[in-house]
Amino acid sequence: AAVLDWSSEALLDFVSQDEMLTPLGRLDKYISSENIFNRQMVARSLLDTLRAVSEDERDCVSVLEQIDRLADDSEPTVRAELMEQIPHIAIFCQENRPSIPFAFSKYLLPIVVRYLSDQNNLVRKTSQAALLVLLEQELMERGDVESLVCPVLVDLTAPDSSDDVKTEAMAIICKVAPMVGRDVTERLFLPRFCEMCCDCRMFHVRKVCAANFGDMCGVVGGEATEELLLPRFFQLCSDNVWGVRKACAECFMTVSSASSPDVRRTKLSSLFISLISDPSRWVRQAAFQSLGPFISTFASPSSNAGQFFRDEERSGAVCAQQEPAGREEQDEDRAAQTAESLTADDSQKCLPSSSEEIPEQELFNSFHFWRTPIPRIDPELELLEEDRRPSAPALDRKHLQELLENLEPHIDDPDVKAQVDVLTAALRATALDSGLEDAFLEPRAARSNPFSSQQPSEHLPADTQDVVPQALLEQYLSMTDPSRAQTVDMEIARHCAFSLPGVALTLGRQNWHCLRDTYETLASDMQWKVRRTLAFSIHELALILGDQLTAAHLVPIFNSFLKDLDEVRIGVLKHLYDFLKLLHQDTRRKYLYQLQEFLVTDNSRNWRFRSELAEQLVLLLELYSAQDVHDYLRPLALCLCTDRVSSVRWTSYRLVSEIIRKLSSCSSLLVSFLGELVEKFCHSQKWSGRQAFAFVCQLSIEEECLSLDQFSEHLLPPLLQLASDPVPNVRVLLAKTLRQTLLEREYFLSSVNCQQVALEHTLVALQTDVDKDVKYFASVHPGSTRLNEDAMSTTSSTY
C-alpha cells in the first residue's frame, strides 16, 4: 500500500510539473522523447502550441524551428502525422502573417517538397494530399510552385524512379496541372507526360496518363492537344492492357472538347468506333457509356449540349460504372506485370505471337481470348507504335474479309458479334489508310456488311443527318438492341436513356426522326430504371423539341409514365410544371383531371411523393385560371392539408395560402374558399385542423396573399375565436400569429380597423392564459423568432 501511495504521489507530481511548463517547454520536453507516441502527440499539438504563442514572434519562430526538427524524425508515423498538420498550420500562418512573415515558404514548404520523395509510402501519400490542399486553398506562391514543387514532381517520374513513386508522381502531376495553368504545364509537365504515355514497361503509369488525358488536354489547349497529345492518345487507345483502353474511353468527351471540329470528325470518330468494338467487354462498356457525351461535342458551342453530362447530381442519373472485378482484372495485372519484364520492343506486341508461347494453363485465359477461340485473329491487327504515331493495321482488306466470312456461321452467338465488331473496325481502318475516310464514316447500310452486329434498317431512318458521323449515331441507336445487354452491359439501355437529351440537342429538332424510334423503344423498356431515367428528363427533351413535336411524340409517352410505377412517376412529378408549361393551353387543361391520380401511390407510406405533389401544385397555379384552380387544385390542396405526415401538411399550408392569392382577383371564388377554410379547419373536431387554420392565416399575411381588409373581414374573426381552444398548442400558435405577424402591421393597430378592439381583448386573454408558453408568446416578441424558425416547434406532436 505504501508503494502504491508513493507511485500515485509521484505520478501526480509528474503531472503537476508538466502543467507548470510553458507551451514551448512542453514542446522541447517531448519532441526528443524516445516514446514514439509522445512524438506523435507533439506533431498533433503543434497548431495548438502556435496559437498559444501567436502574440510573440520569437516564440512562433521557435515553434516553426521545432517543426523543422520534427520533420527529420526517423519514425514514419511521426512524419506522416506532422504532414497531416501542415495544411492547418499553413492556414494559421496565412491568417497571422504580421506575426510570422514568410513562415510557410521558409519552414513548411521545404518539408512538403522533401516528403514527396520520402521512402515511406504513407508519408508520400500524406504529403501528396497535403500538397493538393495547399494548392486548392491558394496557400502557395505561384513562383514557389513553379520553382520548388514542379521540378521535384518531374524528377520523381524519371526512368530511375521506382515504379510506385513514378506512378504516384504522374497522378499528382495530372492533378496539379489544372491548378498551375497552361504555361507551367506546357513547359514543365507536358514533355514528361507525353513520355510517360509511351512507357513500355509500366502499364500503371500509362493507365494514370489515360485516366487524366482529358484534363491535360483541357489545360494545354487545342494546338498542343492536336500536335503533341493526340498521337499519344491514339497509342493509348490501342494499348495491350484493357484497363488503359478503358480509361481512354472514359475521358473521350473531354479530349474531344479540346480538339478542333475537323479532328473530332475525321480522326476521333474512327478512333472511338474502335473502342466500341474492343475485344474487352469492360472497354466496350465504358465506350458505350461515353458515346452520348462524345456525340454531344459535335453540337454548336452555343447549344451547351454538354450540360446534360456534367450535371452528375441530376435526379435519375445513371449509376457510376462499376469497376470490373474478378478474373479479367486479375488477368490484366498478371499479364501487364509479365509485359513489364519484356524489352521495350517486345512489350509493344499486344499478344504473344503463337499459342505455344502461352503456358498451358493460360491457353484459354480471358486476357488472351474473351471466348473459346474460333478462327484466330493475327496479333498484328493491333496498331503498332511507329514514330510515336499509330500506323495502319498490318493485315490487308482481303485477309480481314476472309476472317469475317469464317465467322458468318456463328453470327447468332453474341460473343461472335462482338468479335465481328473488332474485325469490322480493323477493316474500316484499312479504308482510312487508303484514303477512303468518307467510306469509313458513311452509314453501314452503304457498305452492306452482311456480318454487322447491327441491322441498320432497324435503327436508321430513311433520311439521315449530317451533324455527327453517321457511324457514331448508328452505334448510339444500337444501344437498345437486346444483344448489347448480353455482350456489353446490362445497364446499356439506361446509359442510352441518360444521354438522349444531349444527343437530341446536338442533332437538333430537325433530326428528331433519327431518335424517335429509339426513344419509344426506351420508353417501353422492361427495366423500370430505364423508364425512370426518361421520366426525369422528358421536360428537357420537350424544351429541345418544341411544342409541336412534344405534343405529337412526347405527350403519349408522358401519359404512359403517369400510369407507371411510383419510381417512374416521381420523375414526371418532380418536373410536372416544367413539362406542362411547354404545352398548349388546351392540352394542358386535360391534365387537370389526372392530377388527383398522384394522390394514389403503390406504397401509402411514400409521403415524399405527396410532398412533391404539393410543391408542384404551388408552381402549377400560374398555368391555370382562377376558376380551374378553384375547381381542380383546391380539392387536392385541402386533401393534402389533412395528410398524416406533418412535412406534407406544412407544404400544403403554403399551397393553400398561394391558392388564396390566386383567387383574390375573383371575389366570389375567394369568399367561397375562405368560408370553406373556416368550416373545414377552424371548426374542425381535430386540434391539428384548427392549428392548420392558424398557420394558413399567418402565411397569408406574411406572404401578402390577400388584402388586409379581406383578411380582417373573413379570416380574423374566426381566428380570434381560437383563443378559447382547449389545446395549448393551438393557442400558442395563435399568440405567435397575433404578436409576431398581425401586430407588426400598422393596419391592425389603427382604430380604423373594426376588429381592433376584439384583437386587443384576445391578446389580453392570452397574456393571462394558464399555459406559460401561451402567456410568453402573447406577452413578448422575441426578435429572432419568425414563422420558419419557431412555428414548427409546436408541431412536434402532430406527426
UniProtKB/TrEMBL annotation:
InterPro entries reported in the protein's UniProt record: ARM-like (IPR011989), ARM-type_fold (IPR016024), HEAT (IPR000357), HEAT_type_2 (IPR021133), PP2A_Regulatory_Subunit_A (IPR051023), WRNPLPNID (IPR033461)
HEAT repeats: 149-188, 229-267, 715-738
GO molecular function: protein phosphatase regulator activity
Pfam families given in the database record: HEAT (PF02985), WRNPLPNID (PF15017)
One annotated Gene Ontology cellular component of this protein: cytoplasm
Alphabetic keyword roster: Repeat
Domain Putative WW-binding: 364-391
PANTHER family linked: SERINE/THREONINE-PROTEIN PHOSPHATASE PP2A 65 KDA REGULATORY SUBUNIT, SERINE_THREONINE-PROTEIN PHOSPHATASE 4 REGULATORY SUBUNIT 1
Protein name per its UniProtKB record: Protein phosphatase 4, regulatory subunit 1
